[in-house]
Design brief:
With 83 residues, the chain is an alpha+beta fold. Helix content is 66%, strand content 14%.
């Protein structure tokens, strides 16, 4: 079992699809592939994600912003399908 702890910046980078090293956007396929892999590892019981109170409070504070980002990404996906 792997216990995974991600600090706030990593959660932000994952949520925004940013590459902190090169300071540029990820390719969407890489971003969603990483998220899918993390979810699968969690569902399989291979990892446990530990979250502290600070990260949890920051998530609660920024949840609405994240929902707006999800709407934007969904619209982007829909526009690609319509092409």
């Amino acid at each position: 079992m792997i216990y995974l702890i991600l600090d706030t910046n990593i959660w932000v980078y994952l949520a925004n699809g940013l590459d902190p090293i090169e300071n540029k956007d990820y390719d969407d396929d890489v971003h969603f592939g990483l998220l899918s892999s993390l979810k699968q590892l969690k569902e399989n019981g291979d990892i446990t994600v530990l979250v502290n109170d600070i990260v949890f409070r920051e998530w609660m504070r920024n949840k609405e912003h994240c929902r707006a980002k999800i709407v934007k990404l969904n619209n982007k996906c829909e526009s690609r399908v319509k092409r």
